[in-house]
Amino acid sequence: MQWGKTWLDQKLNRGNLDDQLCASICREFTEVHGVQFFDTAEGYGGGTSEERLKDVLIPGEKQSHGAPHVIGTKFLPTLARWTHGSFARALRGSCQRLGVDAIDIYFIHTPIHPLPLEHWVRAACVETKAGRIREIGISNCNAQQVRRACAEAQKHGLRIAANQIMFNLLCFQSPELQETLRACRENQVQIIAYAPIGQGLLTEALTDEKFSKIRLARMTRLVMDELQDLRSVIKSLADKYGKSMAQICLNWTICHGAIPLVGTRSMQQAQDTAGCLGWRLSAEDVAELDRNALKRSTLSKPRWKRVIFVTFITLLVFGYQVNHWVDWLQSKWRAISPWQRRQADCTVETAMYVCCLALFLQAAVATATPFVTRAELKVVPGTVDIVDFSTAHSRLYIFMSSVRWVSAAALYLGVCIICAHLWRDTDQPVWVILVMHLGTYFFIVHFCLFLCVSLRQLSNVNMMDAIRTLTTAKDTVSICPMLAVLFIECWVAANDIRTPAGLPGVPQGFAQDYMFVATWAMLMQLIVCLVNGFVYTLPKDTNSKVMRFCGNSLRGGLTAISIVFYLTLVTVYASILVVLVSRYTNTSRAATGSGAWFA
Ligand SMILES: NC(=O)c1ccc[n+]([C@@H]2O[C@H](COP(=O)([O-])OP(=O)(O)OC[C@H]3O[C@@H](n4cnc5c(N)ncnc54)[C@H](OP(=O)(O)O)[C@@H]3O)[C@@H](O)[C@H]2O)c1
């Protein structure tokens, strides 16, 4: 039962089933049809499939027509696991999720681990002797691996009860499968057949679209045409017996002495699947199906494929772990009480104080550094405010730079906390959104410039192109704080006005529009600045203060980039003018926020 519940399952398994449907399917199998064996794995849905099985097979009611349920689950040998301890931990986890003290049959999911299979069989034997496993199973093992696993178990006086492999009409003729069946027979290992209906490839419901989505078809490089003969034989037998194609395939599996495992996804499929019980195909019909079977086995994987597979599985498990953490964090966040929310607000307030203090410390250290370290300062050619220090007291200089770094880190951390708080609340007044945007542009540019300047001072990296580009960007965004002040002031002034309904006013609709226009134009200007700096070669003219738009990008006439820059510049100032005019012309009737120019 690959009934995982996470978003990863949603992606990998054509959508998740809901709890109620899973419970009904289980009840249908156990109570109506007396099905006993349920298969799951810690790898299915990162353990959520096991949890689900525990929920649907209620303890105490674990009876199918008087016989106890048998639950099989699997150990996944990922690259994060190397010891018997990790095997024992995985087993404990499965027991916990299934709500049992011992697992009826515990499979080693797949022999892909770099350590030999015997290592894991030994671990399983230890746990069996300790009573936490009733029977040991292996899965996806070929003939050689079956023999090795059985030999190892025998050394401990135990046996391998079953081998869970792909067993269906798509692979029956493959020599690897035939050899594996022989090895299992010799060692009395029961075959448990997964994908008995080829993940839907051998049912009436198959369509071209569905075919392209079935993993097994991709894994075995099957093309639709190769299936046609086999499908028509199954279909004719289905008509002969008055059964569905799925029932024919499942009955064929049973006739070969294997136990079929079906991935059921609906009540209708459950009822259909159960219809494979209580009757038998004739020996001739089984033989006809055998003759028409294909040879698409998945049992012989070359070493490189196993390496890719184990890496993929390990990453998948890691993905499930991340998914677990995210779910856990989300549940904690949802459970946060109003009191804790107040604590969060306190954090924001503290962050504001930290920002102020860090700013003060940074300014103080930056001013004191040249005096304390007796540094010689040299303005970097081509800039006005970038200075290189040369000092004999290099240790002291590094110490003071570190203090500056720590205070800068505190400042930007504070900024991030405040931003996160503001962005989290989507129901913000317009002015908060605008201020947030402007603040973000301003801080990102200053932070990047700070990084580049510090790197230049602490190492031998030149970085002048980046510094000049960012200095120009800094000049561009220097207007952002004043723009934010203008917007806030406009809002405060509008708030003093009462609307006809007696409510506090807001700026006119068109004024709000132009606040947005100015903000977006600022962003555009900033992007143009960065593109100009990083895409075009910078002027080598060291006399120029900073890299300007009259650099190389303008050489030879107006370039597209400078046109955009000046257009956005004009847009910013035109918008400011509109906002200023609106601020002095706002009236009680206009202060409702109506009259937007852009819908
Ligand atoms: N040990 C391993 O490495 C391993 C690997 C794979 C699977 N398994 C086990 O084997 C089980 C079954 O394997 P599987 O799900 O891959 O393949 P499967 O049982 O051959 O195919 C399942 C798919 O067939 C369709 N289906 C199910 N019952 C049907 C019915 N009565 N009539 C028509 N279509 C039906 C459903 O697809 P639609 O809903 O799309 O029609 C379902 O998703 C798994 O649940 C898992 O427990 C083990």
Automatic annotation (TrEMBL):
Question: A Gene Ontology molecular-function term?
Answer: oxidoreductase activity
Q: Matching InterPro entries, A to Z? A: AKR (IPR020471), AKR_Detox_Biosynth (IPR050523), NAD(P)_OxRdtase_dom_sf (IPR036812), NADP_OxRdtase_dom (IPR023210)
Keywords from UniProt, A to Z, are:
Membrane, Oxidoreductase, Transmembrane, Transmembrane helix
One Pfam family hit? Aldo_ket_red
NADP-dependent oxidoreductase domain ranges (all copies): 15-291
The protein's superkingdom reads: Eukaryota
Query: Is Transmembrane found in the keyword set?
Result: yes
Question: Which residue ranges does UniProt annotate as crossing the membrane?
Answer: 304-322, 403-423, 429-455, 476-494, 514-538, 558-581
Q: Which PANTHER family match?
A: NAD(P)-LINKED OXIDOREDUCTASE SUPERFAMILY PROTEIN, NADH-SPECIFIC METHYLGLYOXAL REDUCTASE-RELATED
Q: What is this protein called?
A: NADP-dependent oxidoreductase domain-containing protein
Organism expressing this protein natively: Symbiodinium natans
